[in-house]
């Protein structure tokens, strides 16, 4: 008989909260993305335990029934999120509709993670605008596991039979997945391939599955004496402590994360699940309370709603991480999750789908027709708008965004490779060609070719990096997609020797967030590290970002404060030239990248 473990809701709460905190404060909760690891291990454990109990009771596993239960559990909430968010995007934030059709269908067919990989999309950085649905990769990985694992388990139970041998096989599968993650991870490159890949994330699910063979919920656990209770409590505290440390200090870009770190977190999660599952230990009580039970039972909805809310808030608010803005975002997430849980998730699980036609017939032929008509019209309109947005409005802009994404990722890869090399001190093109291409005097082109510059920027600078290197062959460019001012300042702190050897500094930060937040003015901080060298700061042109005017006003004021700071007014130069940009009006394409480089050269030539 299955026992209901209330503490599992506490574990779900822990997992979903750290994911939420990671999306709000990625620079502080650096390993919050690892909350999904806990979800994976717990899912693997509970699913496998359920399948084993079914096989023990009936001598077989009804795979179709299992798949049907999974569909009833997940898809009503998933479809609701798409059908609510899409009309909002269509009306208020059309820039986020890019690629929505493919994202929708890949999510429905549980292959969104592979679609993201194929598109070159990054989970950790936003190039063409944040997707409010990229977190659904998690459900796609689980969906693939739910489809394949029951079939493999049936084969193993029928032909291998010995649980010990099956445990060994699951352990081998786990090891293969761990090794694949280590092999496919490339230090210094974006880790999205290994983060999204089912093959490289499978080990977390399989570790949970392995636990189900040796620690089933219907196991007859022995009574635990006082000393055993103390050991169990200490073990619980240690596992929680390790998890919290990883959530705070294991960043996505660290090689440690992929060279065994994620396996370690999966193992610790597995131990914690085993401790919570033991009825005689305190771990279950620690993770059992009213708040944890509330959040845990609604964790699916909370997980699904959190990123759409955060993404839309980021696009509309000047400071989305201010406490009052965070508060209303969290309240909105809880409110949407509660509505989804009460009116979609719970009814869908109890609903008898085999009786759908009878219920529909009764609804149409009986009761108050005016009320029924209004419900049908409203529901139909919402669904129609959502479907039209998904099918009609996304493809054109998606192609443009895909071109931009691929170009920037390619340029980012080149820059990352060059960071390990010395800046090229040879002019790539004749000076006359440079002068003609960038509309500057030959003397200016010659002067720029000899200038030793250290550049720090975000994806806008990445987009123009090829042109910058033509004009400034001795420039060292440290530009990263999604770079924010606080991270840029941290990097500059490690570049003291490079600053010393440079003639000038070029800064291109402010596209992805405020330059003054959390009590720190990062313009001041960066200027304090300039060693008195001339600093040229390119201001911000990003029409969809609410913090642009705030940042540009701050930069203008800072130029009066620091005699060695010059603001390059990219915003004013480009705002009336939409042809310079891709459809996002942020990243310069060929003509815009030339204009961007010319503006920098002319500013430095004065």
TrEMBL record:
Places the protein is found: Cell membrane
Domain of life where this protein originates: Bacteria
Coiled-coil portions: none
Listed Pfam families: Acyl_transf_3
One BP term from GO: lipopolysaccharide biosynthetic process
The keyword Cell membrane is annotated on this UniProt entry: yes
Statement: the UniProt record of this protein carries the keyword Cell membrane: yes
Record key words, sorted: Acyltransferase, Cell membrane, Membrane, Transferase, Transmembrane, Transmembrane helix
Membrane topology, as annotated: Multi-pass membrane protein
MF-aspect GO terms: acyltransferase activity, transferring groups other than amino-acyl groups
Record-annotated Acyltransferase domain positions: 6-334
Cellular component terms (Gene Ontology): plasma membrane
Residues spanning the membrane: 7-25, 31-52, 73-92, 136-159, 166-189, 201-218, 230-250, 256-277, 286-306, 326-344, 380-398
Protein name, entry field: Acyltransferase family protein
């Amino acid at each position: 008989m299955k026992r209901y473990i209330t503490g599992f809701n506490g574990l779900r709460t822990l997992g979903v909260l750290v994911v939420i905190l990671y999306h709000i404060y990625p620079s502080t909760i650096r390993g919050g993305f690892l909350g999904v690891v806990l979800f994976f291990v717990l899912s693997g454990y509970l699913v496998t335990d359920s399948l084993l109990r079914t096989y023990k009771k009936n001598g077989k596993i009804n795979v179709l029934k299992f798949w049907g239960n999974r569909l009833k559990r997940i898809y009503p909430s998933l479809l609701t999120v798409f059908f609510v968010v899409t009309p909002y995007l269509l009306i208020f934030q059309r820039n986020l509709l890019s690629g929505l059709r493919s994202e929708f269908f890949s999510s429905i067919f549980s292959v969104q993670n592979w679609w993201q990989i194929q598109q070159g999309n990054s989970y950790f950085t936003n190039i063409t605008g944040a997707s409010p649905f990229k977190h659904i990769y998690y459900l796609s990985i689980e969906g693939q596991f739910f489809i394949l694992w029951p079939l493999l388990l049936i084969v193993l139970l029928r032909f291998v039979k010995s649980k010990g041998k099956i445990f060994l096989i699951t352990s081998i599968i786990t090891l293969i997945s761990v090794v694949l993650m280590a092999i496919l991870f490339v230090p210094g490159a974006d880790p999205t391939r290994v983060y999204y890949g089912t093959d490289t994330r499978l080990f977390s699910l399989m570790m949970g599955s392995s636990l189900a063979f040796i620690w089933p919920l219907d196991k007859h656990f022995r009574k635990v004496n006082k000393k055993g209770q103390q050991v169990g409590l200490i073990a619980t505290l240690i596992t929680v402590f390790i998890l919290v440390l990883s959530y705070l200090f294991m960043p996505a870009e660290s090689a440690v994360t992929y060279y065994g770190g994620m396996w370690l977190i999966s193992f610790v999660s597995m131990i914690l699940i085993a401790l919570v599952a033991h009825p005689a230990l305190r771990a279950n009580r620690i993770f059992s309370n009213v708040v944890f039970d509330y959040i845990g039972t609604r964790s699916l909805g909370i997980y699904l709603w959190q990123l759409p809310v955060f993404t839309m808030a980021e696009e509309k608010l000047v400071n989305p991480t201010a406490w009052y803005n965070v508060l209303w975002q969290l309240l909105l997430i809880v409110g949407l999750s509660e509505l989804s849980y009460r009116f979609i998730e719970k009814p869908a699980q109890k609903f008898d789908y085999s009786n759908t036609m009878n219920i529909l017939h009764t609804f149409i032929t009986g009761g108050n027709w005016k009320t029924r008509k209004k419900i049908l019209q409203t529901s139909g309109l919402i669904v129609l708008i959502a479907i039209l947005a998904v099918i009609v409005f996304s493809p054109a802009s998606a192609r443009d965004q895909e071109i931009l994404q691929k170009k920037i990722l390619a340029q980012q890869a080149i820059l990352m490779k060059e960071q390990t090399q010395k800046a090229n001190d040879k002019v790539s093109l004749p000076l006359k060609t440079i002068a003609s291409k960038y509309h500057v005097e030959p003397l200016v082109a010659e002067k720029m070719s000899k200038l030793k510059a250290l550049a720090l920027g975000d994806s806008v600078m990445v987009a123009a990096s090829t042109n910058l290197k033509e004009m400034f062959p001795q420039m060292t460019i440290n530009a990263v997609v999604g770079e924010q001012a606080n991270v840029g300042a941290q990097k500059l702190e490690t570049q003291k020797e490079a600053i010393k050897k440079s003639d000038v500094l070029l800064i291109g930060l402010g596209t992805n967030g405020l330059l003054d937040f959390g009590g720190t003015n990062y313009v001041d901080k960066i200027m304090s590290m300039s060693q008195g060298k001339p600093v040229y700061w390119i201001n911000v042109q990003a029409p969809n970002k609410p913090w642009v005017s705030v940042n540009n006003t701050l930069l203008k004021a800072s130029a009066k404060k620091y005699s060695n700071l010059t603001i390059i007014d990219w915003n004013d130069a480009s705002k009336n030239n939409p042809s310079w940009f891709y459809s996002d009006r942020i990243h310069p394409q060929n003509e815009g990248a030339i204009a961007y480089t010319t503006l920098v050269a002319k500013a430095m030539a004065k």
